[in-house]
Design a protein that fits this description.
It contains 2 helices and 35 strands. The N terminus and C terminus are likely disordered. The chain is mainly beta. The strands form 9 sheets. The protein has a 5-stranded antiparallel β-sheet, with no helix packed on it. Strands 25-26-27-28-35 form a 5-stranded antiparallel β-sheet, with no helix packed on it. Strands 29-30-31-32-34 form a 5-stranded antiparallel β-sheet, with no helix packed on it.
Length: 467
């Protein structure tokens, strides 16, 4: 096995350094030379959608632990990997722990979090491509962010680490490599496993094509599901399309369709059995948003369709949809319209009640990434949706990337950030409870703990249901 994968490091870190407040990273991608400035941009502390989870509730500690891409005071473009928690017993947060300075402004390098069976906090620090290293760190004490040990330096991108009780880590991620059939670099989806986070298996290809892929994933009991796309020519990732789904029930030994049909790996055929819907034939781009399992344990995929990658009204309509596995087929339903391809929210599927929280409201930077946060509900398994609450209003900046914690607690139900969609700005972090009340994390703290400030209580909407 390769040394780069199995290096067992024992670097000892000094006691944790803390920051005096919660400040997110601001990031942009692909200037557009028009009034909308960029393909996407804003406060991206918990970006991108291909990273998960950013937060986990621990019943044992009664805390929601979270990580995010931060920035130093007075800066907005130097990525710091930050770790913290919300204490449900006291309703407070500590000063966040500074794990490392990633030495980049690229929010693709944001961290993700996991908790093992003994309560140790694990941070997976991503890299965007091969020009920078990736890291894994582990807290020295269970349920503590005071001190971390360095475990591994290697290279991986788009991190999705899932710890399964009694088995260990199944780590979905992306790797960049030279493509033999091409002079360019490509990206492929991989997974690897570890019983303890230190000794890792060789990475195995999940999906590989000259065109590349993105994926979103989520666990359910002993199962892990993943949804992914393809990036066909000539625009590549700016022409992302199609919707695929695979799952594993045996810690990655076999991967199947939702119907249980085994699929040979790596997936390399555009028309593989993993294909949920051929959007390329329909002339639509697909932006993956979320994956969740309903009360019956069946996968539900959240995705956005669009006519083009550029920001602005010309590529309307941009529509959020669900694809629900019924047990025999995939059922596609519309959720809500929005005004940007990178408007990202999360699904919450409870028995008799489905919820979506995301930036579907018109924000101060119209047709920029994000907007005002709204809560949508469905009581018929996604057949119809009603906007029930406007969670933010009269905001200075657009709100972006609403993320659901793993094992989400009603008191810390979603986390996101804000930021100017058209120009570099400060970025604050927010969370919401299940009732839809919104709180902002303190950007400056005077003491060791602080109580987040309520931004506003929810206001019900009288909008009619949307089909």
């Amino acid at each position: 096995m390769r040394r780069g994968i199995l290096l067992l490091a024992s670097l000892t870190l000094a006691a944790a350094v803390t920051e005096d407040g919660y400040r997110g990273i601001w990031y942009f991608n692909q200037p557009s030379q028009d009034e909308f400035k960029y393909k996407y941009s804003g406060g991206f502390a918990v970006y991108p959608q291909q990273h998960a989870p950013f937060a986990i509730y621990s019943k044992e500690a009664d805390k929601t632990f979270f990580c995010y891409g931060g920035s130093a005071k007075g800066k907005h473009d130097e990525l710091l990997h930050m770790v913290s928690y919300f204490d449900h017993a006291t309703g407070t947060v500590p000063r966040p722990t500074l794990l490392l300075n990633k030495k980049t402004s690229d929010a693709h390098d944001n961290p993700t979090i996991s908790i093992d069976g003994d309560g140790h906090i694990w941070i997976f620090s991503s890299a965007h491509g091969t020009s920078r290293p990736s890291f894994i760190h582990r807290s020295r004490k269970p349920y503590s962010i005071d001190d971390f040990e360095f475990v591994l330096e290697t290279n991986f991108s788009y991190t999705q680490p899932w710890h399964l009780p009694g088995q260990g880590f199944l780590f979905l991620h992306t790797r960049y490599q030279r493509i033999p059939e091409s002079r360019s670099s490509g990206r492929a989806l991989y997974w690897m496993t570890s019983p303890d986070g230190r000794a890792w298996s060789e990475p195995q290809r999940l999906a590989f094509a000259l065109w590349g892929h993105y994926q979103v994933s989520w666990p359910h009991e002993e199962r892990i599901g993943t949804a992914f796309d393809i990036h066909p020519p000539p625009l590549g990732l700016n022409e992302r399309t199609n919707l695929y789904y695979l799952e594993t029930r045996d810690f990655g030994q076999t991967w199947t369709t939702a119907a249980g049909k085994p699929v040979p790996l790596p997936v390399s055929d555009e028309h593989s059995a993993a294909l949920v819907r051929d959007f390329r034939r329909e002339g639509l781009l697909v932006y993956l948003k979320d994956l969740q399992f309903d009360a019956a344990g069946r996968p539900v995929l959240l995705y956005l369709t669009s006519k083009g990658y550029e920001s602005g009204p010309k590529n309307k309509p941009r529509l959020l949809h669900t694809a629900r596995w019924t047990g025999t087929t995939w059922e596609h339903r519309r959720v809500a319209p929005t005004d940007h391809n990178y408007d990202h929210g999360s699904l919450y599927l409870e028995k008799g009640l489905w919820r979506f929280i995301g930036p579907t409201g018109r924000g101060p930077q119209a047709y920029g990434t994000g907007g005002e946060i709204e809560l949508w509900e469905s009581r018929d398994e996604g057949k119809s949706w009603r906007r029930t609450h406007q969670m933010t209003r009269n905001s200075r900046y657009n709100h972006t990337y609403v993320r659901r914690p793993l094992n989400a607690h009603p008191g810390f139900y979603a986390i996101w950030a804000d930021g100017d969609a058209f120009a570099p700005s400060e970025s604050r972090l927010y969370f919401a409870n299940r009732a839809g009340d919104v709180f902002v994390l303190p950007s400056e703290m005077q003491g060791p703990q602080a109580r987040p400030e309520r931004v506003n209580a929810t206001a019900s909407s009288s909008n009619p249901p949307r089909p």
